[in-house]
């Protein structure tokens, strides 16, 4: 091509690897589940169907078990080459061998093999169990950390073969001047709140605290808010209002 630009050639695309940090190529020969809107190109004879309307009901039944996220994914069938991308985010793949990996649902681009997706007890996350390939987006490069460790919740991408984390609050920081001001403004940072990992396994951390938007989290929070008392709902309303003001002021 003119200008020295090399066009993509199907014959030279990898079977399951990155084309560059922002695009991933995977050969499809059967069935694959991907997140809606993440296909940027494909070669061959591929078909995209909603999970709830797919003719491959038995495949979906054994590979997808999360009603909350069923509307966010589609099943890809046929033979061809699929290219995935996500708004310029970094993309990585992970080969899971008879294990389990929990990942932010909004960051999960697709998976295949004998992996089964289940909804995690941690809001906003899903667990992949079995053997196969998982493709995920991240804001910046992904770093692998061995427990025991504490991670900023906003930087956490997921964890593999490790127990679910628990919340850790640094009360010395919170009781300090900056911590008190932060709480008054409804701010929650990695300095005062972390997720604590113990035991064996691997923690996946992205290089930035910027998270991919996940609309399903709002559904989870809305459902949990029904259990709050009136004073609790009023306090939550005040904290949300303070956070909205803080976000708006940071944009100017």
TrEMBL record:
Gene3D superfamilies: Mitochondrial biogenesis AIM24. SUPFAM superfamilies: TRAP-like (SSF51219). Pfam families: AIM24. InterPro entries: AIM24 (IPR002838), AIM24_sf (IPR036983), Trp_RNA-bd_attenuator-like_dom (IPR016031). Signal peptide: none annotated. This is AIM24 family protein. The lineage of its organism: Bacteria, Bacillati, Actinomycetota, Thermoleophilia, Solirubrobacterales.
């Amino acid at each position: 091509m003119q200008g020295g630009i090399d066009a993509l050639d199907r014959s030279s695309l990898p079977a399951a690897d990155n084309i560059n940090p922002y695009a991933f190529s995977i050969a499809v020969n059967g069935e694959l589940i991907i997140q809606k809107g993440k296909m940027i190109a494909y070669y061959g004879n591929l078909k995209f169907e909603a999970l709830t309307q797919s003719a491959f009901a038995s495949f979906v039944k054994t590979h997808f078990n999360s009603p909350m996220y069923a509307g966010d994914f589609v099943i890809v069938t046929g033979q061809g080459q699929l290219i995935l991308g996500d708004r310029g985010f970094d993309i990585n793949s992970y080969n899971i061998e008879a294990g389990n990996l929990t990942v932010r649902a909004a960051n999960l681009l697709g998976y295949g093999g004998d992996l089964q997706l289940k909804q995690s007890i941690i809001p906003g996350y899903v667990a992949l169990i079995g053997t196969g390939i998982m493709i995920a987006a991240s804001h910046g490069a992904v770093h692998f950390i061995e427990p025991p460790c504490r991670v900023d919740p906003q930087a956490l991408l997921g964890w593999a073969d490790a127990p679910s984390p628990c919340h850790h609050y640094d009360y010395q920081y919170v009781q300090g001047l900056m911590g008190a001001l932060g709480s008054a403004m409804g701010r929650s940072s990695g300095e005062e709140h972390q997720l604590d990992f113990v035991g064996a396994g691997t923690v996946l951390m992205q290089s930035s605290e910027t998270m991919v938007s996940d609309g399903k989290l709002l559904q989870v929070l809305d459902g949990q808010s029904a259990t709050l008392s009136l004073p609790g709902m009023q306090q939550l309303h005040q904290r949300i209002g303070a956070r909205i003001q803080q976000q708006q002021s940071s944009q100017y």
